Automatic annotation (TrEMBL):
Alphabetical list of PANTHER family matching this protein: AMINO-ACID-BINDING PROTEIN YXEM-RELATED (PTHR35936:SF19), MEMBRANE-BOUND LYTIC MUREIN TRANSGLYCOSYLASE F (PTHR35936)
Claim: Signal is one of the keywords in the record: yes
Biological classification of the source: Bacteria, Bacillati, Actinomycetota, Actinomycetes, Kitasatosporales
Keywords: Signal
Name assigned to this protein: Transporter substrate-binding domain-containing protein
Keyword Signal part of the UniProt annotation: yes
Domain Solute-binding protein family 3/N-terminal: 40-246
Length: 250
C-alpha cells in the first residue's frame, strides 16, 4: 500500500473567498480593547502557517469586526503552544493553539475553528502509514508542541527524538538520520514538494485562537466575530476553499 495520502491544500492569503461579510457591527471597538498596539489586532502565527491564508482570513474578520488593522507576527510553534508569545505581549491573539485542557490552564481559548491534526513525514517510498508502523524507529518531534505531547502518548514504541526547531527535524528526515517526523500539515506540504511522503494523522483535537487570560474582552470580540462568520456562511465557504471540504464540528 502506498504511503502517500493527500493533505488539505492550503491557499495563499489572496484566496478569492473573504471572511468579511457582516463586518464592523460587533459593538466592540478597537479603542475599547487592551491591544498591544493601539488600533491594531496583532496575531502570532508559526511559519509556514503564518502565510497559509485560512487563519489570516479569520484574523481579518476579527480585526474588521472591531474596526482595527490586522498585523501577523511570526512566532515559533513552541512559543505559541506554551503561551510564551502571549505572556511577552508579542501579540493579542495566537493562532493554531491546540484546544486542550492543559492549554486552558494558562490561556483563554476561542471556540475551535479547525482540526488540529498532525502530518507524518518520511522519505520517498517509505511505507509508514501511521505511528504504529514506527516501532523501534526514530520519530522526530519539535519540543514544546502538541505533536510532542501526542507522540509521547501515542508513539510509545518509537524512539522519539526531540528537536528545538522544525527545520533540523525535517532535515534529519531528508538525510535519513531519523525515519519519520511529526509536524503540522502546512509544514508537511512544503516538505512534500521536495519529493518526500506525507500522511495525515487524525488526533481528534482542534485548533483555536488563544488570548491572555486577562484579556477577556479580546477573547469575547474574537468569539463574536467567529460566530458571525459561521452564521452568515462565510466561515464554511472559506474553510472549504482552503481545506477542500465542509467543516465538521468546528
Amino acid at each position: 500500500m502506498p504511503f502517500v495520502r493527500s493533505l488539505p491544500q492550503i491557499s495563499t492569503a489572496a484566496a478569492a473567498v473573504a471572511l468579511l461579510a457582516g463586518c464592523g457591527d460587533s459593538g466592540t471597538e478597537a479603542s475599547d480593547l487592551p491591544l498591544v498596539k493601539k488600533g491594531t489586532l496583532t496575531v502570532c502565527a508559526a511559519p509556514p502557517a503564518a502565510a497559509a491564508g485560512f487563519e489570516e482570513q479569520l484574523a481579518d474578520r476579527i480585526a474588521d469586526d472591531i474596526g482595527a488593522k490586522k498585523r501577523i507576527v511570526e512566532a515559533s510553534l513552541a512559543d505559541i503552544e506554551s503561551g510564551a508569545a502571549l505572556k511577552a505581549k508579542t501579540c493579542d491573539l495566537a493562532a493554531g493553539v491546540t484546544a486542550t485542557a492543559e492549554h486552558r490552564k494558562t490561556m483563554a481559548l476561542t471556540k475551535p475553528y479547525a482540526p488540529a491534526d498532525h502530518a507524518l513525514v518520511a522519505q520517498k517510498d517509505a511505507e509508514y502509514e501511521d505511528l504504529g508502523d514506527l516501532k523501534g524507529k526514530k520519530l522526530g518531534v519539535q519540543s514544546g508542541t502538541a505533536a510532542k505531547a501526542y507522540a509521547d502518548d501515542k508513539a510509545k514504541d518509537a524512539d522519539v527524538i526531540v528537536y528545538d526547531e522544525l527545520d533540523p527535524l525535517l532535515k534529519a528526515v531528508k538525510t535519513g538520520k531519523i525515519q519519520a517526523g511529526l509536524a503540522t500539515p502546512s509544514a508537511a506540504q512544503g516538505f512534500a514538494k521536495d519529493g518526500a511522503e506525507t500522511a495525515a494523522v487524525s488526533t481528534g483535537e482542534r485548533h483555536a485562537f488563544a488570548a491572555r487570560r486577562s484579556s477577556k474582552e479580546i477573547l469575547g470580540a474574537a468569539n463574536d466575530a467567529l460566530a458571525k462568520a459561521r452564521e452568515d456562511g462565510s466561515y464554511a465557504r472559506t474553510y472549504k476553499k482552503h481545506f477542500g471540504s465542509a467543516p465538521k464540528g468546528a
